[in-house]
Amino acid sequence: MKQGILFDLDGTLWDSAQAVVDSWNEIIETLPDFHKLITNEDMCQLMGKTMDDIAYTYFHTVSRERALEILQACMDHENDYIEQHGGVLFPGLEDVLKELSEKYDLFIVSNCQLGYIEAFLSYHKLGKYFKDTECFGRTKRCKGDSIAILLDRQDLEQAVYVGDIEGDFISATQAGLPFIHAAYGFGKVPQAAYAIRSIQELPAMAQKVFAKKDIRAFLHTQKLITDGAFGTYFSSICQNGIFPERANTQAPALVKQVHEAYLSAGAQLIRTNTFAANTKTLDMGLDEVLETIEAGFTIAKEAAEPYRQKHPVFLAGDIGPIPGGRQEQEEEITEEYLQIARKFVALGADLLVFETFPNLDQILPVIQQIRKESPIFILVQFAVNQLGYSVAGISARSLLEEAAQVTEIDAAGLNCGVGPGHMYNIVKQVNTLSSKYLSVLPNASYPKVVQDRLVFLENMDYFADKMVEITDLGASIVGGCCGTNPDYIRRLVKALGEKHLRAEKPSPVHITVKEKTEQAEDHSFYAGKSGKLIAVELSPPPSANDQKLLEAAHLLSAMHVDTVTFPDSPSGRTRADSILMAAKVARETDLCVMPHICCRDKNAIAIRSQLLGAYLSDIRNALVITGDPVPSMAREDVRSVFNFDSVGLMKLVQEMNREEFASDPFFVGGAINQNRLRLDVEINRVKRKMEHGATFFMTQPVFTKEEIDKIHRIKEETGARILCGIMPLVSRKNALFIKNEMTGMCVTDEIVARFADDMGRSEGEAVGCAIAREMMALAADFADGYYFSIPFNRVYLLRDMTGVINESGKEK
User: Fold this and answer.
1) From residue 556, how far is each of 532, 764, 787, 796 by CA, in Å?
2) Tens digits of per-residue pLDDT, 443-474?
3) What pTM was estimated for this model as a whole?
């Protein structure tokens, strides 16, 4: 097995601080615009940083461009100086390097400039011990990426990184390597699992690290067979109806029996019985969930121990989706995923398996945080249907493409959802897209209900044959999901044999992009427009009578507004369908229409269908929103869907633009709630929406300068195209209703007081328009336009608010 030790340089192999300080000060003394000589203490603070960071940190009193010039001069002289004078090697270094080089390949990866490592090796005559080096000066990448580049170049099967500061630990875990802390160096790394107090302790520590069975080293030479389904197999042998995850504490012997059956069948990886171990599914507190997880892991470990004496067996901490996902629950759910993952790391799991997910949205920040804390192997698996789409409407191709770009993910694949035949067809289309190890765990078949139980067709030979074909497509990790049992895995092991279990290194990312033969058409409502954009909302009727709406639409057409929007049953109360209403108005007027599309009432299949219908109706603009919940009094009879939130829906549209509408795409916008308690959260959501295709935003109606200031800040921090929400209140009654009944709107007592009880209709409208004009004036310097929500579709008030539009579209 090809094993390697990768070293940091400064603080790990030597102390060059004094030599670097002396060389830099020789340059600094000659500078006309910078005179602060550097000290040893300064240099120790800079060690380990990238060159750009060093320049901007130390030479901060000059321009960034000049700082880089000074640094380059210092580094050029530094290389020459070190090649002539050297530095201070840590005691016994060469003897240790000689011993290690006889057993391992040795390398250096540093954040230094080109020539620095070479100067070190040249002066101290240590080049004969090192096979290769890499540095920031060559890659212009962070150290984690530089490590990954060297690993790929050298084709190492197993490696460890040795460094002295926390940045080294983070870089090693990012690259997926175990880390040994050189505690005699410059920094403290309390989270390091391995530490040495002198370089002489390294040979023994390296032997200890390499002796630990490592899944990455295993996958470098062999393919890995996992267990099959836990839940469905458990249910088939458990007669008392215990929920599988609760059995970790209520029936541990039965849980162990399941694991042992799979291990006996030849599984080399078993997943803990924790797929649904979360507070929502088990209806218990987090502490109790973590106890359930620890019990499940302990059982799996005990079951695996006898088999681990004979061959490698890997224990995977199994994490499934946590139900919920409403916007207000995001932080809570993300924190729960993080606590669960940390628990598995603390227990000693060989890897984490996030499986049966519809996308990466909820778990990506968890994965990134965990890999900052631990080099644990991370496998992510998505569930798709027979057509290759997840419940979030995202294709397998896009899901695996996205996972391929996430450095912290080691392996990605598909599980559940489909049988082996459909899985083969899906994998055949996407298997060349991933630079990760590919995992494939299909269901046994498709179930039918027999006496209130799901029963799967027994087709073990067919399953095994298809899995051989899938393995030949490049899958590195294979096993089974729902409906499979130990007999399926036993047949799979036999069918694969030695021939099919030889590993294939993951191919580099290879994504075929269709050549664009022509420029995509731009039918956005803002295309080619100058000046303030005008969008007006028309509420679809709650009945079959649309006469008033059509009259309002024709009036707006005469006013030449930029677009008309149609809410999607706001407040969870039924109104005419927004897309069908928009399509009718577009047919009968020359207006650019924009339906609102919310996530509340339809699953991903229905929304995808809606979008296709809208597109065929020549609609190209849409406002994408999460949607208001169903009113509490109706929840006994009506259920919200919420497969995803507005960001997820934008990702779906983004994918359809790429796959279906590339030449003439949809343009989607998002809503802004400037009254959210934490404005930073709203700003981050705006940024996320922009990342996933949002090209414009419409705010909640504004009534105060404070709201205007918040929107201004959002504009400054995101650069988004923003239409400021304007609602002309038309009476005191209307103002009180909005103040007390509508969430997200901030109608103050001062606003209400401007309306008298005895005002007539025209008087009330005049006050409302005056307030609207005040808000528009406050936003005029930064807003890209205005989004008018006019009560009761009284669109004639638009003239009073804008003061610039007449029937010919010319300024008054």
Assistant:
1) 16, 22, 13, 8
2) 997 655 544 555 556 689 999 999 999 999 88
3) 0.70
